Amino acid sequence: MKINLSNYSQENYSRGRSTIIVLLWWVVQATIFRYSLHNMYAWRSFLLRLFGAQVGKGIKVRSSAKFTYPWKVSIGDYSWIGDNVQFYSLDEIHIGSNCVVSQESYLCTGSHDIKDPHFGLITKPVVIKDGAWVASDVFVYPGVTINEMAVVAARSTVIKDIPAKEVHAGSPAKYVKKRFEEDELL
């Protein structure tokens, strides 16, 4: 057998905070964050900031959204984060201003080296730039940038960068059309 998980190690990986802070966040997220009322967006923003997230003004994060390590997340002004969105923030996740990340989407910053017999951890940031929309149930791979005003259609899998003002769909996501008609004329 070529894979030996008994030798797996994360000794070179840093969660960015002590174990006690990680555990405290998990308790807060599972209780007062998760069970806060629907319109308590300012409360959830406060809790995210308290644990090191960079959160802009006017954001709307649903109570069922999950953040592995909020101190590795930034969300710009007036962005919306839907129900059950997963921020698997082993690395940085940057969401621009006026973005929408719709329900059930998964922003993934970590994976494993499939050629490494010890299945070593690999992390890369995810960036979603201003005005972009990640529709329902989209999976975004580590290292992907979704550029300004781009749209990723529901149930898509994004394995490479999405150019600005383009709509992509499918698994893997492929170009469908320009987002705005005036861009199609160019």
Please identify the structural class as seen in this structure.
alpha/beta
Range of helix content: 10-25%
| Discrete helix count | 3
State the major sheet: 7 strands, mixed
According to DSSP, the number of beta strands is: 19
Sheet with most strands: strand arrangement = 2-5-8-13-16-18-19
N-C termini distance: 55 Å
Explain how this protein is built.
The chain has 3 helices and 19 strands. With 186 residues, it is of the alpha/beta class. It has a 7-stranded mixed β-sheet. The chain has a 5-stranded parallel β-sheet with strand order 1-4-7-12-15, with helices on one face. Strands 3-6-9-14-17 form a 5-stranded parallel β-sheet, with no helix packed on it. Strand 18 (166-170) and strand 19 form a beta hairpin. The relative contact order is 0.11. The model has no long low-confidence stretch (mean pLDDT 96).
Short overview:
This protein is an alpha/beta fold. The chain has three helices and 19 strands.
Q: What are the salient characteristics of this protein?
A:
7-stranded mixed beta sheet; 186 residues; 5-stranded parallel beta sheet; single chain
Secondary-structure map:
Elements: H1 19-33, H2 41-50, E1 54-55, E2 60-61, E3 66-67, E4 73-75, E5 80-81, E6 86-88, E7 93-95, E8 100-101, E9 106-108, E10 110-112, E11 121-123, E12 126-128, E13 133-134, E14 139-140, E15 145-146, E16 151-152, E17 157-158, E18 166-170, E19 173-178, H3 181-184
Parallel strand pairs: 1-4, 2-5, 3-6, 4-7, 5-8, 6-9, 7-12, 8-13, 9-14, 12-15, 13-16, 14-17, 16-18
Antiparallel strand pairs: 10-11, 18-19
